[in-house]
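Supplementary Text 2. Reproducibility record for the structural model of the 78-residue chain.

All settings were left at their defaults, and a single model was retained for analysis rather than an ensemble. We include the record here because the model underlies the residue-level annotations in Supplementary Table 4.
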Amino acid sequence: MTNDVTREIAVRSIQSFYRINTVVYLTGLSRSTIYNYLNPNSPFYQASFPKRRKIGLRAVGWNSGEVIQWIASRDLAA
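Retained model, structure tokens:
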């Protein structure tokens, strides 16, 4: 049990977040497209796109692993 807890703590400590400019660069999508993908009221909404998370009082970020995984899933589909 202790090993699992230690592993979980290690994984969470190396987890990083990308800000919007990095997500734009990595995905090749525009800012507005990313926000449309996140908006359930938009006709362009994509439930599979990684959700943003609050990382500060006025800052949001995207989990780096989720972004990379989403990019890889799009490459496989193409």
